[in-house]
Each structure stands twice: as structure tokens, then as C-alpha cells.
Design brief:
Elements lengths: L2 E7 L3 H12 L6 E7 L3 E6 L16 E7 L14 E2 L5 E6 L5 H10 L11 H9 L4 H11 L5 E6 L5 E4 L6 E5 L2 E5 L2 H4 L5 E4 L4 E6 L2 E6 L2 E3 L4 E2 L11 H7 L1 H13 L5 H5 L2 E6 L1 H18 L2 E6 L11 E7 L5 H12 L4 E5 L5 H5 L2 E4 L12 H17 L6 H15 L6 H4 L2 E6 L2 H17 L3 E5 L15 E7 L5 H13 L3 E6 L8 E4 L9 H19 L18
Parallel strand pairs: 16-17, 16-18, 18-19, 19-20, 21-22, 21-23, 23-24, 24-25
Antiparallel strand pairs: 1-4, 1-10, 2-3, 2-4, 5-6, 6-7, 7-8, 8-12, 9-10, 9-11, 11-15, 12-13, 13-14
Helix pairs in contact: 3-4, 7-12, 7-13, 9-12, 9-15, 12-17, 13-17, 15-17
The protein binds 5-amino-5-deoxy-1-O-phosphono-D-mannitol.
Length: 567
């Protein structure tokens, strides 16, 4: 959940690392820091955002490492921010992950008279490296072997224009250029400098210098081929979430084009049971995937929240992992347990070279374009489209460009619909739907909670009368999603029941009016299964507008990070 980055070479390391940290900030933004290899090591840290580091003095260092944090151990203070220095001040370390045995390591260090200056688990790495009486690359191997849990780190040493790298449990990519090298938690931060990256695997470690990368595993030198980085840095903009929503029609087209070149794994055709696994918004996409795959193909499907996943492997199982970042720890852990049990795996992800893309037996790339805002928007819609295309393909039906053009046109209309009303935010808010619309309702409620910090829940229409309707009165408001003709009567009845109890109702509908106080009417889709791509848009916009109206930063909501790389 943190972002780490390093540069070594002929250019100004301070400036390159600061720029890179800005691109990584979506991974965590409660504190930040940088270490520069000058005559001695210079370390600057802040409890604020990366921009606070712009104040630090100019430097002509050629080597630097940086960190942007999402706190796990210790509050977001300057002392707990990375880099951490070793007791002798000669080694600086930035770390991404959680060291599970840090309490033991801390005690060992205390017994040697080393007092830690922070509450973090990460600081132990710097001291342990300094205690190893050997070559730094070997020290990295030895220390790495003693760390339990996720421990991807970068280290620099006084007097050396080199960056020592170790990956375990959190992603790390390296780009090597003419007389320079870059390393970072994800390829997006490398994309301004190179279109290629070497993606390190767990247990790999090495040293990066102006003359290249020396990579090792288990004490042996290894060679790895770079992969193509299929992303470009996002343009500077005031609000990424808004820009990402606006980009949806083109993103959907890219997902469709990407699917044309995708070879469906043979296991999908014969799968007796399809497991769909993801977290948060990606889990909602899994719920949709289950619905559309069952409807289109009759296959037995189960959608599971990744952190609750406990596979019981059966003959004919296939597991699909839906993850925008491809780095979500819960999702990767579920993927690893499937692999251990021999279940074929397919990843649907937006990031080429991500752990999910590399580790699953096959992967489909959404090509939605970089998504920086913590709240997933366009990636969710592209995940729905990918799952729809997958279901159709397995059912033996081709999806024509004309269908995609219709969705793009409808998306454009839906993006212009205004769902925000002050009274919604001043009420107890409920999101209601049935079938595929209940999934959209859940996603709408999650988006609102995530970026406005307001309580909002989602319920299936028919379930209200079993308890929750007791909450309905003049102080309640319900957003009712309606995209399926067959569910219309049920939703009309629900709206009536809500209004009878004084609740204000707003309908987001592709099937005409349903008797609500206000209607946002969206185009009726030829293929109703595609409507959730459209009906979620006013809900995403509602959350965005509410967040901005409350004076919050929708791109960087409190306590969250784009990619949740801890379990
Ligand atoms: O990168 P992933 O798709 O695996 O992320 C999964 C969730 O953490 C993510 O969808 C989260 O729920 C979003 N911030 C919601 O907007």
C-alpha cells in the first residue's frame, strides 16, 4: 500500500524521485520521504503529502530513493515516515509490506543496544543490513531471508551510487536506460522514462547502478527479459476521478478491442464451476460476472470476497480473479491458494506486468488506461464489459461493434445525468435494486461511503419489508436502480411502499418511470445485461459531486489507498 521508487544515473536524482513519488502517491499518501546519496546520506521526511517535499534543498545527488506511505505500524508522523536510517547513519531503507516477525527482530536489535527511533516494522531492515559484515548484495540476501511477511525494499549506502533491491510479497519493477536505472513499486511510475520494465519475482534481489541491473535469486545470478509497459502517465488534472469517468467511452472501446485478441483459456469452455474472486468494487464486478455467466451459459458460478476465499478444489473448476491493480494482497493470496490446489486461474486486470497478470495461468488486460483516483470507476465498467464478453464468448455468441457503440453512446448520455441533490446528502440514504440492479446499488453505496465518509447501505428491493423498511420516514431517501423490464413491477411496488412512509425516492432507470419523486431516465439498452455499465454512472457522479461539495478530496479519501497490498 506504499509506493517506493529509486533512481541512479547521470540526471538529478532528487527531481526524478520527487516526480516519481507523485505518480505513486495513489498507493498511499499519509507521509513521504526521500534519501539522497550526497557526501553522506541526506534524509528528508514529512508527515504530509509528497508535495511537502518540494521544499527540500536542491541537490546534485545522482542516487536517491523515495517513499509515500500508507501506515500499518505507527501513526503517520515524520518519525515513522520512510526512509529509515541505520544506527550508524550509513544505510537508508524504504519498505513496502508488513514484516510479521518484526517484534522478535526488534528485541534482537535491542539486545545489541540498538534503539529504534520509530514505531514502524520497517526500521529493523536498515539496522539489520548495517549489522551484516559483508558485501551489501549478500547482506540484502541474508536480511531478506530473516524477514517474514511482505518485505519489498530498496536500500542505499553512503558513498555508493547504487540501489540495492529486494522483492518479496509486494511488487517491484526496474527499467534500465543508457547510463541510468529506475526502480519503482509499479510500472506507471517508470512509464515517463521507459516503455520496458523487468518485473521482479518474490525472493529476487540485486543491485542497480548506472551500468545496469545485477539480479540474483538464492545466491545465483539470474537474467530476466523486460516486458512492454502498456501504460502512460496520466495528464495533470484537478480531479482524476472526474477525468477517469469522462474517459469511459474510449476505455470501453479499448476493452472490447483488447478482447478481440484474447485467447480464451480452454478450461473456461469445459469448466463445471466458475469461481469469481475479488475485493471491494472488483468483488461487485464478480457478482455481475456470476449473474451474466450463469444466465448466458448455465455454468455454475460462485462469487467470493477474496479475503473470505477458502477453495475446496473440484474437478472442472476454474477461478477468475478480478483486480484493477493486479496487486491486491487478498486477491493474490486467493490466487496462490488456487494454484496450490491445481485450479486453473484467469486474471482480469488493468495493469500489464502486475502480479496477477504474471502469476495467473492466463490473463486478460482491460486496457482501461491508468486509474489514479482511489475510487474505481472506469475500471469497474470495463470489468463488467469484459465479463459480459467472456460470458457471450463461452455461450458461442459474437458481440458486434454496433453493441459497443450503443453502450458508448448511452454512457455519454449517462455521464451528463445529474443525480446530486442536497437533500440526498441530508437524509438517511439507501440504494435499492433487484437482480443486476442490486449489484449496482451496492457499488453506488460503496462509492459514496468511500469518498464522502457518509453512511449508505444497499438492499435488494424485496428485502426491505423484512426489517429495513422500519427506518423509512421523512428523513430517509432511496435511490432506486431499474434496468430490467422483468423487475419493473417489483420496483414500482417498492417505490410506492417507500413513498407511503415518507421517504424521498430518486430512480435511475433504463425502463422508464417507476413512480419515484424524481427520475433520471437513461437509454433503454437492446441488451439489458449491458445496462449496469450505464446505470452505475449517475451513482459514481453523485458520490463525486457530494465529495467535492463537502470540500473533500475524492482522489485521495482518508484511510484508503488505491492498491491494498496488505492482508
Ligand atoms: O485493484 P483491485 O481491483 O484489486 O482493488 C480492489 C479494491 O480494493 C478496490 O476495488 C476498492 O474497493 C476501490 N477503492 C473501490 O472504489
Amino acid at each position: 500500500m506504499c509506493g517506493i521508487i529509486g533512481y541512479v544515473g547521470g540526471r538529478n536524482a532528487r527531481d526524478i524521485v520527487l516526480e516519481g513519488l507523485k505518480l505513486l502517491e495513489y498507493r498511499g499518501y499519509d507521509s513521504a520521504g526521500i534519501a539522497l546519496v550526497e557526501d553522506s546520506l541526506a534524509v528528508y521526511k514529512t508527515a504530509g503529502r509528497v508535495r511537502e517535499l518540494n521544499m527540500l534543498p536542491k541537490s546534485d545527488a545522482h542516487t536517491a530513493i523515495g517513499h509515500t506511505r500508507w501506515a500499518t505500524h505507527g501513526r503517520p508522523t515524520a518519525a515513522n515516515a520512510h526512509p529509515h536510517l541505520s544506527f550508524d547513519g550509513k544505510i537508508a531503507v524504504v519498505h513496502n509490506g508488513v514484516i510479521e516477525n518484526f517484534a522478535v527482530l526488534r528485541e534482537e536489535l535491542a539486545a545489541k543496544g540498538i534503539t529504534l527511533l520509530s514505531d514502524t516494522d520497517s526500521e529493523v531492515i536498515a539496522h539489520m543490513l548495517a549489522l551484516e559484515n559483508c558485501d551489501m548484495t549478500e547482506a540484502v540476501r541474508r536480511v531478506g531471508e530473516r524477514l517474514k511477511g511482505a518485505a519489498t525494499f530498496l536500500a542505499v549506502k553512503e558513498g555508493e551510487d547504487k540501489i540495492y533491491i529486494r522483492r518479496f510479497g509486494a511488487s517491484m519493477a526496474v527499467s534500465v536506460g543508457e547510463g541510468e536505472g529506475f526502480c519503482a513499486s509499479d510500472v506507471l511510475a517508470l512509464s515517463p522514462h521507459s516503455d520496458r520494465a523487468i518485473v521482479l519475482g518474490d525472493g529476487e534481489y540485486g543491485v542497480l547502478s548506472a551500468s545496469g541491473l545485477d539480479l540474483f535469486k538464492d545466491g545465483r545470478r539470474i537474467k530476466k527479459q523486460p516486458i512492454l509497459i502498456r501504460c502512460s502517465p496520466p495528464k495533470d488534472c484537478a480531479c482524476h476521478m472526474s477525468a477517469e469517468l469522462e474517459e469511459l467511452p474510449e476505455a470501453l472501446q479499448r476493452t472490447y478491442d483488447s478482447f478481440k485478441n484474447f485467447h480464451i483459456p480452454s478450461e473456461l469452455a469445459g469448466a463445471k464451476r466458475i469461481l469469481l474472486v475479488g475485493c471491494g468494487t472488483a468483488y461487485h464486478a464478480c457478482l455481475y460476472g456470476k449473474l451474466v455467466l450463469e444466465r448466458e451459459t448455465g455454468a455454475r458460478c460462485e462469487a467470493v470476497v477474496a479475503s473470505e476465499f477458502e477453495p475446496d478444489a473440484n474437478e472442472g473448476d476454474l477461478a477468475i480473479f478480478v483486480t484493477q491493480s493486479g496487486e491486491t494482497a487478498d486477491t493474490l493470496s486467493a490466487l496462490h491458494s488456487c494454484k496450490r490446489q491445481g485450479i486453473p486461474t484467469l486474471a482480469i486486470t488493468n495493469v500489464a506486468g502486475s502480479s496477477a497478470a504474471l502469476e495467473a495461468d492466463s490473463s486478460f488486460l482491460l486496457e482501461a488506461g491508468a486509474e489514479i483516483a482511489v475510487a474505481a470507476t472506469k475500471s469497474y465498467c470495463c470489468q463488467l464489459l469484459a465479463l459480459y464478453l467472456l460470458a457471450k464468448k463461452r455461450a458461442g455468441h459474437a458481440v458486434e461493434q454496433s453493441e459497443i457503440s450503443e453502450v458508448k453512446r448511452a454512457a455519454r448520455e449517462a455521464l451528463d445525468a445529474v443525480a446530486y441533490e442536497e437533500r440526498l446528502m441530508n437524509s438517511k440514504l439507501f440504494f435499492i435494486g433487484k437482480g443486476q440492479d442490486y449489484i449496482t446499488a451496492r457499488e453506488g453505496a460503496l462509492k459514496l461511503r468511500e469518498i464522502t465518509y457518509r453512511q449508505a447501505d444497499a438492499y435488494p428491493a424485496g428485502e426491505l419489508k423484512h426489517g429495513t423498511i422500519a427506518l423509512m420516514d421523512e428523513g430517509a431517501a432511496a435511490i432506486v436502480v431499474a434496468t430490467e423490464e422483468r423487475a419493473k413491477c417489483r420496483l414500482v411496488a417498492t417505490v410506492e411502499e417507500l413513498r407511503a412512509r415518507g421517504a424521498y425516492t430518486l430512480a435511475v432507470s433504463c425502463v422508464g418511470e417507476i413512480g419515484a419523486d424524481k427520475h433520471i431516465l437513461l437509454p433503454r439498452m437492446r441488451e439489458e445485461a449491458l445496462a449496469p455499465i450505464i446505470s452505475v454512472l449517475p451513482l459514481q457522479y453523485l458520490a463525486l459531486t457530494a465529495s467535492l461539495t463537502l470540500g473533500l478530496d475524492p482522489d485521495k479519501p482518508r484511510n484508503l489507498a488505491k492498491s491494498v497490498t496488505v492482508i
